[in-house]
Amino acid sequence: MDKLRMMFQFLQSNQESFMNGICGIMALASAQMYSAFEFSCPCIPEYNYSYGIGLLIIPPIWFFLLGFVLNNNVSVLAEEWRRPTGKRTKDPSILRYMFCSITQRSLIAPAVWVSVTLMDGKSFLCAFSINLDVDKFGNYSLIKGMSETEKIKLLAKIPCKDLFEHQEVRVAASRYIKCISQACGWMFLLMMTFTAFLIRAIRPCFTQAAFLKTKYWSHYIDIERKIFDETCKEHAKSFAKVCIYQYFENISGEMRNLHHHSSKDDSDYEDDDKRRNEEDKLLGIRVQDDMNKALCNWHICKPALALRKEQKNGENNDKLHREGGGAVNGLANGHTHNVEKKEWAVYYSKV
Fold first, then answer.
1. Where are the stretches annotated Disordered (predicted)?
2. Which of 77, 261, 281, 345 is the most buried (most CB within 10 A)?
3. Euclidean distance between CA atoms 295 and 291, whole angstroms
4. Top mean-pLDDT range of 120-124, 268-272, 340-344
């Protein structure tokens, strides 16, 4: 349990590793789901194509949307896109980077599903069995004298072992279509791998500074949201504690007045210390309306990303220069500032 807890804490602290783990689990789950899935082609001309292509397309779309749902950065992206500009401008390149990052991770599980489906070939066989030319397999007597409708109905039964009587034709047709399906599967894997290679190879060719900028600020937005949530949670906890402390202080004060006890014991002093510590965590916000206003202002007008440390240092330097008349080391016109003088008394002993 301790090892699992440490692993979970590590994944929580490292958002990128956590999402990569989620994508890997989804990819394994998609392959496992396909192996456990019972494929049942309807073997009806009107439904074969819809069933086969639907099995190839609909589950990947579901896995793609599930990847967006499980990614925590989706809410961060939506909030950043919809928030008012306020004092902080919005950079479209950051939004594009976050969206591309989410999309790349969400495409892993659908790609695994499509690859496994094409390699297996069952859905391909179900979808395109009616388009086969039986004459290629050398059995002309099978469709001799059949109308076009009867021929299509016969070909639609090829994916079903129990419904198709001529097993030799069925095996030959199944192998033929599965070979085409596997070829499409390998082409799909080659295309996906080549695309990933191009993305990784071409990206450093562009301006690396722009990429680092978008990556840095996307991480900043995610971390800022987490720290804001933690701060709100800490403030709410301290606010609740102070309210409860004050409530019990009022009750205890009434009871002491009733019983004529005015002395305080050590536990009361400890409670006072705890209350002061919790009051320090309130950061000066002690009223419900003030907290609501602070939360509303955070959403409407986020603070600008410019720290004030240098500004304060500049103000202090200007203040020193004004007080010192622009002299160096506090010297102005040949004399120092008015410094409080200390008097010393020296006593001599006659011994």
1. 314-334
2. 77
3. 6
4. 120-124
